[in-house]
Amino acid sequence: MNTGLQHARLWGVLSPEQRHKIRREETMEARRYTSLAITLHWLVAIGIIINVFLALTWEFYPEESIRPAINLHKSIGITVLGLAIMRLLWRFTHTPPALPTGYAKWEVQLSHVTHVLLYVIIFAMPITGWMHDSAWKAADENPLTLFGVIPFPRISYIMNLDAVTKEQMHDLFGEFHEIAAYAVYVLVGLHVLGALKHQFMDKQRELQRMWFTGDVE
Length: 217
Prior knowledge:
By secondary structure, this protein is mainly alpha-helical. The protein is built from 7 helices and 2 strands; from the N terminus they run H-H-H-H-H-E-E-H-H.
């Protein structure tokens, strides 16, 4: 029997309440990101929050705790880079849910620009950090390991530079990394404020689009 005909007959025996429930669930799924995208989004967000906290507080740690905090910062940064690559691959292979119809034109444009810049900065931060670390004068004596367990390579081209050039690179990419951090503060702030505005002022149920449960209508 034709699959479409079977579906039509099955649909015909459903009550109006059952049909409404199915349509509602299909609508919510169409307006919500996939579970993988949601997971990657929140893992990246958590990683960035932890790394910002570490960078802002490690100067207050006891001397013996500073280096472990920096090493954890590096491990999380590399992990965020890997998650960001996965998130970008998802974006290339999936069409994200459409924005709610209540968005003003300027809000749609600002949302797109902010998302693009966030992708750029989320990649720029760990990459500049990786380059900064590869130019560290003590890199040879301090192998890079993720969470103290998984060996991770530094950039050999940078490590093989002469001492003077390497020190210059270390300072340069350190500055780039710091600038990227400030850009993250601004862009994440805009992203969060926009989401909260749509959620609580415009009643758009914005947060439910990036969570596993909840009514997105």
